[in-house]
Design a protein that fits this description.
It is built from 13 helices and no strands. The chain is mainly α. The chain folds into two domains: 116 residues, Farnesyl Diphosphate Synthase, CATH 1.10.600; 168 residues, Farnesyl Diphosphate Synthase. Helix 1 crosses helix 2. The termini are far apart.
Length: 284
């Protein structure tokens, strides 16, 4: 069984191999704080990998999510020693920061929803999904940074929902291949778009307008979330801003490419990432 440091190293390697868009933990963040963020994001990654697996059917995925939830509950029991490295690190993080189990349970629940719900009638439904799939991550990060009040959580929710909407646009075809569409039916109908437009490489003017509408919705949420920045101590503010600036950068790419996310899926290159870090520092 790996020791605690080996477990945190495992989490760090896992995170760095998956999160291409954003830097998890800036250069200015203390190593021990980074480790705890790695543990949280490793849990997120493992949970999503179960929910998005191409090698198991719905029943198997739901069963694996149940196993993960049972293991999570055990980590809150005194004397229990997990064997998986990401759970060893997570348990240590949970204990050191006295983290409530609820955000983790919501993340698991979001992946359960993905096995049974593939379309969303309106934005309210999608927003409710984001309250489980994305917003809990913000609450966990705030917890690591020493905050647990409702005001900061609400402002964090704006940013996390915006990030999730941005991710939906970025991965629209991959999600469609998994049988999921995260653009509300109501919006599709309002712009006279069909599901087949998601696979159409010939730019449909209505679909372009629909993507622009979704992009602007995400922009608006990022803007609301900016009120969180001055409420975070300077020690951690850069890392909070990294997420927002990174998400906005992707939206900027979508906009600059004429909202054609089918032929030009937005990706961040090294220059973009350096620019994101620079902006987060100079606007501290």
């Amino acid at each position: 069984m790996p020791n605690i440091q080996e477990s945190y190293t495992y989490c760090e390697n896992l995170v760095k191999s998956h999160y291409e868009n954003f830097t998890i933990g800036s250069l200015f963040l203390p190593k021990h704080i980074k480790n705890h963020l790695y543990a949280i994001y490793s849990f997120c990654r493992n949970t999503d990998d179960i929910g998005d697996s191409l090698f198991e059917n719905k029943i198997e995925k739901l069963n694996n999510l149940d196993i993960l939830e049972a293991e999570l509950h055990k980590c809150y029991k005194k004397g229990y020693m997990p064997k998986d490295p990401f759970m060893i690190a997570l348990q240590d993080t949970i204990n050191k920061f006295n983290i409530n189990i609820t955000p983790f349970l919501k993340l698991i629940e979001a992946n359960r929803i993905d096995q049974t719900k593939f379309r969303y009638n309106n934005f309210k439904e999608l927003e409710n999904y984001c309250s489980k799939s994305a917003n809990p991550v913000g609450h966990l990060v705030l917890n690591i940074f020493g905050y647990s009040d409702d005001l900061r959580k609400t402002l964090s929710d704006y940013t996390c929902t915006a990030l999730q909407l941005t991710n939906f646009l970025q991965g629209i075809q991959n999600d469609y291949n998994l049988g999921r569409i995260y653009i509300p039916n109501e919006d599709m109908e309002n712009f006279n778009c069909k599901e087949k437009d998601i696979l159409n490489s010939n730019s449909n003017p209505n679909f372009i307008k629909l993507v622009r509408f979704q992009t602007n919705r995400a922009y608006d949420l990022f803007k609301k979330g900016e009120d969180l920045f001055p409420l975070i101590t300077r020690r951690f503010r850069t890392d909070i801003k990294l997420f927002s600036i990174g998400g906005i950068k992707i939206l900027d790419k979508i906009k600059s490419q004429g909202y054609d996310i089918i032929n030009n899926p937005p990706k961040l290159n090294m220059k973009d990432k350096l620019e994101i870090i620079f902006k987060s520092i100079i606007n501290k």
